[in-house]
Write a structure and sequence with these properties.
With 407 residues, the protein is α/β, with parallel strands linked by helices. It is built from 16 helices and 14 strands. The chain is 44% helix and 19% strand.
């Protein structure tokens, strides 16, 4: 009888773990984790002076970042008679499509002979095929955009490099590291972005943050951002952080339901931090279903139109984001310097800003004024983020390349 009870108890424990982890069978008898939940408890006491210091630091992220100029280069000379290729993680990915469009626009201004963009569907086969096309088209450089698994296409990358093609990646790597297999990486300061979100929560909640951190388990930069958030909360928060990690590439995962259940289990959660665009709308839906929006500060990181819609609606209190245009200018600067023989260009990472309802309101109020109409490139069709990020940054790059008004 005792043995039977022990077996039943063991089965119940395993069942509970499976429910919490959201395990599914992958068809060959082994389990794959699609949703996992874990919690860390913090017992830090933050002083009023530190809260004031964090608040002051956050203000710097709400304004235009400083331009850290590298040495001037002759962009026309470097790009002359050269083709470059753009390969995104998926042609249907809205964020990657915006970056690709901006990258093509900037490269055309610089003077590249041709800018090719190959169709991809998110699979390694499509990425490999695109790299093979770049070899056939005799490109001088290839830009890989987004969440592309380099391990799965390493042979195709090496083949392109063997044919003299420089391979550069965007939006995969934290500042200070290079994406493996490629010649150079356009850096995104994920740690600073995540730290800024955590600091906002700490200031907003006066050091008493009970956070729900919603992260993608199958995106390369997520671990760095997750660690930065939890490290900051550990130092300056008296509360806890519940992490909800999910596969955004798995359509069977119900993000809204997972977030809803986490909020229902713990009504003391007072802050939700979402680290990927594709998890945003579902998280908003979960907050609305549980009627938790009024008690929860909602923070996010991303660059898609959905993020700015939610900021505009007042659902997202603050977001960290990079400008598509700024990202493209930074990337083209990397391309030019790598083609000019610089192995590891010592240039700035992609800058970011904190976007809030106040930023958006200011833009809306300035629509039609002399200030807004003086920027002829900002049209009614311009994404909201590009109205927030001004053209000052790109003009500094144009001057650096010998293409600006001051050149």
């Amino acid at each position: 009888m005792k043995r039977i009870l022990a077996v039943l108890l063991s089965a119940m424990v395993l069942s509970s773990i499976a429910m919490l982890s959201g395990c599914k069978d992958n068809g060959n008898g082994s389990a794959v984790e699609s949703v996992t939940e874990s919690r860390s408890t913090n017992n830090a006491v933050v002083s009023k002076e530190k809260l004031a210091a964090l608040s002051t630091e956050l203000e710097t992220y709400k304004s235009q970042p400083n331009f850290n100029a590298a040495k001037s280069i002759d962009a026309k000379k470097i790009s002359k008679n050269k083709k470059i290729a753009i390969i995104s993680d998926s042609s249907s990915n809205t964020y990657s499509s915006y970056i690709s469009q901006e990258l093509k626009s900037v490269a055309e201004k610089v003077g590249f002979k041709e800018i090719l963009a190959y169709d991809t569907d998110g699979t390694a086969n499509s990425h490999t095929s695109a790299l093979e096309n770049a070899v056939s088209d005799q490109c001088a450089a290839v830009v890989l955009i987004g969440n592309i698994n380099k391990d799965k296409i390493s042979l195709a990358i090496e083949n392109a490099q063997a044919h003299g093609i420089k391979v550069i990646s965007i939006d995969n790597t934290q500042v200070g590291t290079n994406d493996h297999f490629v010649d150079s990486s356009v850096k995104t300061n994920y740690v600073a972005e995540a730290k800024a979100l955590a600091d906002y929560a700490i200031v907003e909640k006066e050091g008493r943050v009970n956070a729900l951190l919603v992260t993608p388990s199958d995106v390369s930069y997520a671990d760095e951002m997750k660690k930065a958030v939890t490290d900051e909360l550990t130092k300056y928060s008296d509360g806890y952080c519940t992490e909800l990690a999910m596969e955004i590439s798995n359509t069977a995962v119900n993000i809204s339901d997972a977030v809803k259940k986490a909020l229902e289990r713990d009504t003391n959660i007072n802050c939700v931090i979402v680290l990927h665009d594709n998890m945003l709308k579902d998280s908003v839906d979960a907050l609305e279903m549980t009627q938790a929006m009024s008690r929860v500060t909602f923070l996010a990181r991303g660059g898609g139109t959905e993020l700015f819609t939610q900021v505009q609606n007042g659902n997202v209190a603050t977001a960290v984001s990079e400008s598509y245009e700024w990202t493209a200018y930074t990337a083209v600067d990397y391309i030019l310097r790598v083609l000019n023989g610089e192995d590891n260009p010592e240039i700035s990472d992609i800058p970011f800003m904190m976007i809030s309802y106040d930023n958006v309101k200011k833009i809306e109020e300035s629509e039609g004024t002399e200030e807004s109409s003086s920027d002829e490139e900002k049209t009614d069709d311009t994404p909201l983020i590009e109205k927030i990020f001004t053209k000052t940054f790109k003009n500094q790059y144009l001057n650096l390349w010998g293409l600006g008004e001051n050149s």
